[in-house]
Structures are given as C-alpha cells and as structure tokens.
Amino acid sequence: MDARRIARVVGLGGTALAVGVAVSGGRTRDADERAFRAVNRVADARVDGVASAITELGSIWASVGGAAVLAAGGHRRAAARALAAAGVTWLAGQGLKRLFERPRPYEADADGTRLLIGPPSASSWPSSHPAVLLSFVGVAAREAGLRRAARSALTGLAGAVGASRVVVGVHYPGDVAGGLLLGRAVAECVARNGR
Questions:
Q1: pLDDT digits (tens, 9 = 90+) for 88-110
Q2: With contact defined as beta carbons under 8 Å apart, do 136 and 86 qualify?
Q3: Number of compact structural domains in the chain
C-alpha cells in the first residue's frame, strides 16, 4: 500500500471515530437526534416500503449471498476479497458498538420513534449495514474491474441503505455517517486496486 492510500485509510478511520465522539454528547448529539426525528417521523408509505425492502442489503448475510453470486459468475478472487472486507468491517463495527454503547433511537425515545423492523440487539454507533455493504461493493467492484459509473451506483446503494436505517428507526444519521466512513476505510485497505 502506498503512502497516499495509507493516508486515506487513516483519514477515513480517524474521521469515523471523530464522528462517533461528536455524536456521543453535546450539541452534535442533539443535532443528530433532531435530524433523526425529522427523517423518521415523516410517514410515507412508499418511502417506508422502499426503506424496509432495501435495509437488509447491508447485512453480513447479504454479503455472503453477493459473494456466492460473484464466485458463480467467475469472479472468485473478487468474491473472496469482498467477503473478507465485509467480515472485517462487521467485526470492527461490533467492537466499536461495544466501545461507544450509544442507545438506539427507539431505546432513547420509545414513544417518538417509528420502528418499522425488528429491533437489532447491538448498540447504535456505527451503523454496520451501510459499512458492510460499502466495504463489500467497494472491493468487489474494484476487483471485478467495474467502471467508475457502476462503482458510483453501488456506492449510492450503500448510501441508500444507510438512509433506510434512519427511516426504519434503528440508527441516527451520525451512526450512518460513521458506518460509511468505516466501510470506505476497510475497502481502501483490502482492495488491490486503490483507485
């Protein structure tokens, strides 16, 4: 890994941790909670339906399925590296959840949160679903040689999954931002082609 890539990884990881610290208290936490309420309390059947339908695309099990599809399509190395990235991201996310112990929105405000899916068991920061998906698709797309437009679309999908986690009531926007930064940092570490 060259020095610029190392600097990107450290910068992304450091920024993710800074987000975690910032949303743990004070004005930034208050702003994050207000942003959550502004998104979560908007009841729209179409948005709720899309959010509920795509939110699990960021699960580690979706990455296992994606890796199987890649491998069946002749991209075994891309599948293995992308699944490794997803696994590392999931493990890092679980460790950070134990470190930060941020309550989920539905725990902090049970009466004011619309919970559209079953409640996850771990704490809130960072959001693992967009992190896992972004690391998986980031590595898979690079390893499989996808063009920039396709890679951008996959990155957008990870962002949409992140937004869905707020809509369905299980994460704050700051959790999602931290998760996306974590996923990008891991993808930068794992993908052989750093661009």
A1: 999 999 999 999 999 999 999 87
A2: yes
A3: 1
